[in-house]
Amino acid sequence: MSKSNIINLGIQIVPKSKSLDSYTLVDKAIAVIQQSGIKHVVTPFETVMEGTQEELMGIAQRAQQAVLDGGADEVLVYYRMQIRKNMDVQIEDKIGKYK
């Protein structure tokens, strides 16, 4: 796989805080993803992003840091990636027919 292949990365960030609302903290992570300009789909359980693995991991790290900076005591982060050897992975190929 070349570094320029497009992959899908699903990220679920679960903030832990004794005093702050979890949804408000998750919104901080989603804002980072939205501001990145990459293609993404927000679902009730995770956000799926499309891009190179290198750029998506950078966005994911900034998103989790935004939650920590927003006041979370800790975060649990779950990743799922789909990577093809010599082909791009595109969100549209998987869910386009359902629009």
TrEMBL record:
A single Pfam family, by name? Thiamine_BP
Alphabetized InterPro entries for the sequence: MTH1187/YkoF-like, Thiamine_BP, UPF0045_domain
State the source organism's domain of life. Bacteria
Question: Residue limits of the Thiamine-binding protein domain?
Answer: 11-98
By sequence similarity, the record places it as follows: Belongs to the UPF0045 family.
What is the name of this protein?
A: MTH1187 family thiamine-binding protein
Tell me what organism the protein belongs to.
Fontibacter flavus
